Amino acid sequence: MTEKTAIALKTESHQDSTIVITATIDANLVAKHQNDSMLHLGHDLTIKGFRRGKAPLNVLKEHLDPQKVTNHTLEHIFPEIIKEVFKQHQLKIIGNPTLTAVTTPDQAPWTVTLSFPLLPEFEIKGYQDKLKKAFKDLEAKTKKDANSKTKSDDKTQTPKDPQSEKLTALLDTLLKEIELTVPESLITQEVNQSLVRLYDHTQALGITVDQYLKSLGKTAEQIKQDYHQAATENLKIEFILDRIATDLDIAVNDDEITDMINASGDQQAKDQLNHPEQRAYVKGIIKKRKTIDALLNL
């Protein structure tokens, strides 16, 4: 098998904004990375009769943990699989792949199955008309509620923030009217981050997670479901707003990014935000804000 076909790819499924690909790695390529892994892991190994790090491969194989060699080999093979996926497929991958299956037999090619989250494909046609209708319905409801309150003797009700209600109507309408499927792996990642924050929060309060959940009247499964729903909706909104930003030709220039960074506070924060990755993050925040403002003014 030539080097060009050292990694053969097969698409197992392609649905729900996720593609599952199985890579078959040629035995020669596996052997190459196994040898490199053994040499690396045996570099500081002391074996009787050999200088440190100078034992031959056949001796190293007898002294090294086979699972450690396999894991190290896979770590070197994964990047080559990812490279081959990008080479063979025109995919809009938006996150890290998830390992779903792996077989590593002694005398055969290895197979690795990976799940890749993709940028969701969806339509946004007619969103402006739907938002305008939602805003009109909200305005009519607000006037009706105001009239009812005027006639009522109850003056204790807290007045509602019109802009906040309009934003809620905007987000609810986009979620209701625009259908898309978010990759489950991205949702899981968001849920896990929320669970970590929950744990940190309870630690700061000096209580256990169970005690905190009991105070909320919820079980661990219920809180996971809540986080799952919130993550799904938040990710959907992010994708929808990004698509609408493109539709509306929303742009963000370097001066806007710099101005926001300069308003962030101390010099250390400014220095951190001025790194390329952080500037891209700030750009995304500004772009999202400008998109929402444009929609609220329809």
UniProtKB/TrEMBL annotation:
Any one GO BP annotation for this protein: protein unfolding
Disordered: annotated segments: 142-164
Residues annotated as transmembrane: none
Domain Trigger factor ribosome-binding bacterial: 10-133
UniProt keyword annotations, A-Z: Chaperone, Isomerase, Rotamase
InterPro entries (UniProt xref): Trig_fac, Trigger_fac_C, Trigger_fac_C_sf, Trigger_fac_ribosome-bd_bac, Trigger_fac_ribosome-bd_sf, Trigger_fact/SurA_dom_sf
Known catalytic reactions: [protein]-peptidylproline (omega=180) = [protein]-peptidylproline (omega=0)
The protein's enzyme class: isomerase
All residue ranges annotated as the Trigger factor C-terminal domain in the record: 164-296
GO cellular component terms, A-Z: cytoplasm
Subcellular location: Cytoplasm
GO MF, any single term: ribosome binding
E.C. numbers: 5.2.1.8
Family: Belongs to the FKBP-type PPIase family. Tig subfamily.
UniProt protein name: Trigger factor
Organism of provenance: Candidatus Chazhemtobacterium aquaticus
